[in-house]
Amino acid sequence: MKDMTETLLRVDDLRTHFHTFAGTVKAVDGVSFSLAKGEIMGLVGESGGGKSVVGFSILGLIDSPGRIESGQILFDGEDLAKASEDRMHKIRGKEIAMIFQDPMTSLNPLHPIGRQMDEMLRLHTDLDARGRRARCIRMLEDVGISQAEDRLDSYPHQFSGGMRQRVVIAIAMLAEPRLIVADEPTTALDVTIQAQILKLIRRQVREHGASMILVTHDLAVVAEMADHITVLYCGKVVERGPTRQVIDDPRHPYTAGLIASIPDPSDRKHRLDQIPGAVPDIRKLPRGCNFRDRCPRAQALCAEREPDLETQEPGRSAACHFPVEGGGT
Amino acid sequence: MTAMLEVEKLEQKFDVSGGLLDRLSFSGGRILSPRRVVQAVNGVSFDVQQGEVLALVGESGCGKSTVAKTIARIHNPTGGTIRIDGQEVQGLSDRELLPVRSKMQMIFQDPYASLNPRQRVRDIVAEPLLEQTGNRAEARDKTEALLARVGLNAEHAGRYPHQFSGGQRQRIGIARALSVNPRLIIADEPVSALDVSIQAQILNLMMDLRDEFGLAYLFISHDLSVVHHIADRVAVMYLGFMVETAPRDTLFAMPRHPYTRALLSAAPTLDPAKKARQIELTGEVPSALSLPSGCCFRTRCPFAWDRCAAERPALRDTGDGQQVACHLIDEPERDKP
User: Fold this and answer.
1) What is the model's pTM?
2) Are residues A165 and A238 in the same domain?
3) Residue A209: left (phi > 0), alpha (psi -120 to 50), or beta?
4) H-state helical runs in B150-275
5) In chain B, what are the domain boundaries?
């Protein structure tokens, strides 16, 4: 079925490195994945996994000392890794929109939200002032903000955290982008507000037929939202597959460890399964597999040779010499 | 047996009016200077027995951290009583509090902000004990043993906090809290700043320490799956009020307050198919500067009727150690969508 759908984005062997005085940080080191039209993909991993840098790379938001070293980001056939800054200006907001974790960093505190919404439409559409205003009001109503017309004159600080994130979503959806990169969009929100916002994001994405990359550390959020999961560890993809299959039957020991370390209310144990140790210093990665020092399945081979991302079965792949056998954990 | 911690009708208000000039306003030909008071905690009562883990849950602004800080006497309560191991502590001076602090210690959420960046780890961990006894030799030996117990090694003792990861810093914070042999630990979101794999390590450590030292925890968290794992009993707060308390299994299997039910159904889970879709909330938490009349939750409650605006429901026993503050208990026939 997946072969029949059209690919919107293909990231191929992407390498984004940061050249610091303390050494080169290979934040993204050979990441490949593809995203179909209308698909929601969860990009998960712990802090330092490189998941946010993948999102920033797609939008061309990598600043010095960081640089995309090699690889392709094919968005509808066009390689964004080689696109000029002028071209990226046209793409950002119009074709690809981003939703950040903290709405205060993406809203300008000095301008009313109506003006910030209007800017998006002025840049990317040829609507006249009246048409733009009408579109803004409709969009705010769409994301559940009441008295939308009056609220256009409100400043960001006059909204609560959840309401601000609704405004950010409204701005992101205004120009009807084909791809949305959402970086931890609900991590700063309370759980009842998170539920509202996740529902809103999913509805907006589905209604507009857009695709989304959902960057998050929270596997439970991904389980509720995404069609596919890509798991990153130390800048590399360690596992990829359909959401339900990956969560019910993880192949990479890191994925299995992550899932097992989340307390499960339906199966309470005295001790949680934990992954020993911590994520290694990304400037001094071990030889062979990056996960081997923390891995219960590691053997001599893991120290010698780094495992490639290999297809386990159609649609599923893992980068492990000794993958967890099928049949669940 | 006296409870390790007893809190009765605890109240905490913060005056945020600012100076006189900030307050002045002109209305209807008269100059007014209204006070603005945040009613953070409104008459909360609960207890923690020896060796028990009580989880205090709720969303931001519900007052759970204020309760923790008030019990740890970072704030002085504006009303109510706090008894630690039978001794009333509200109103005690810092000097009078010193012996109480050897029974009660706190672990903080942010492992970056709660350790002095200019102190070495061994000094951080030894400080509470030196404050209590002044015995340097004892403090040094104890520090070594504690660091080993929380999973750090001797060479770590001479390092500074910035040389550690978040999980290791939280271990240092735990070692510091344990240095005076406390019997009650107040833990304010101790794992929410950590990655899940590290979170599991710290939770396991905390539970091992409880078994080993017979510790009681007041565990503040917004994460229900963590609470389900660690708690013996759970207390749910909303807008500074206690809305429900129950033994863990009862609360998760049979939540009775509409807010508890909404909270449980909103939490994302790995298996959404298994989840009970019970109550979905709309709207947001009202401001603690102007509390709603009657029930604190009525502005978002799908069941609210006129009685809820007129009369504030009291926390009442409903059997099996469960207590609920909701008028639905009297009128169960209204409990339908």
Assistant:
1) 0.85
2) no
3) left
4) 166-178, 196-213, 224-230, 248-253, 258-266
5) 5-103+182-334
Cβ–Cβ contact B38 with A under 8 A: no
Q: Is B149 on the interface with A (CB under 8 A)?
A: no
Tell the CATH topology of B5-103+182-334: Rossmann fold (3.40.50)
Digitized pLDDT (tens) for each residue of chain B, 337 residues in all: 689 999 999 999 998 877 777 777 777 777 777 788 889 999 999 999 999 999 999 988 889 999 999 999 998 999 999 999 999 998 899 899 999 999 999 999 888 889 999 999 999 999 999 988 888 888 989 999 999 999 988 888 999 999 888 889 999 999 999 999 999 999 999 998 888 888 899 999 999 999 999 999 999 998 888 999 999 999 999 999 999 999 999 999 999 999 999 999 888 888 877 666 667 787 778 888 889 999 999 999 999 999 999 999 999 999 889 999 999 999 988 887 6
Q: Is B33 on the interface with A (CB under 8 A)?
A: no
Q: What does the alpha-carbon distance between residue A166 and residue A146 come to, in Å, rounded to a whole number?
A: 11
Residues of A in contact with B201 (CB under 8 A): 274-276
Interface check for B141 against chain A (CB to CB < 8 A): the answer is no
List residues in chain A touching B: CB distance below 8 A: 46-47, 160, 162-163, 190-196, 198, 217-221, 223-224, 247, 257-259, 261-266, 268, 270-276, 278-279
Which chain B residue has its CA at the smallest distance from A268's CA? B229
Closest CA to A75 of A125, A37, A28: A37
Domain enclosing residue A46, as ranges: 7-95+177-318
Q: How many Å apart are CA A155 and CA A135, to the nearest integer?
A: 19
State whether A170 and A181 are in the same domain.
Answer: no
Q: What is the interface pTM, i.e. ipTM, of the complex?
A: 0.79
A220 found inside a domain: yes
